[in-house]
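Hi everyone, sorry if this is the wrong subforum. Our group has a chain we'd like a structural model of before ordering constructs, and none of us has done structure prediction before. Sequence below.
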Amino acid sequence: MTSFLTRTADGTFQFGHTLGKKLAAGDVLCLTGDLGAGKTLLVQGAAAGLGVTETVTSPTFTLMQVYETGRLPVYHFDLYRLDAPMDLHNIGFEEYMGGDGVALIEWADKFPAAMPEHCLWVEINRGRETTERVIMLRPKGERYRRLGEELKESADSGAGYCHAGV
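Answer:
Right subforum, don't worry. Here is the predicted structure as tokens:
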């Protein structure tokens, strides 16, 4: 596990932006954290890093939003309102995993068994200060381990976030 610290909302967005620049077709990010932790903000940054020009909003009521203006399609899921794993099947969830785009899944911890074997778990927690966030990465697979290493190398270089150890 690798952790990062952002001190402001812009820092969380910048972390997502840096991450988004490094994402490739088929990548899956499983985001977790309390309400208001910054999951959607991080997704907005990742989408910007992928070149998405559309306004990215939380798909809480639509469950999924597709953005196709960037270098890769972005499939943004919000599982908060789903009650059972069968609901994932009903929205065609599996069809978007590991394909031509990037899947960004908020509230992935509601259905951990339904997440792909190889993915990057991104847990966002509040820090000591109101605007601080601790972002913990749990890579599942070599691709995501390398991605975490790349993010460590990008940290502390004025990116708006720093490597916090572990």
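For your construct planning: Strands lie at 2-6, 28-32, 64-67, 74-78, 102-106, 119-126, 133-140, 161-165. The chain has four helices and eight strands.
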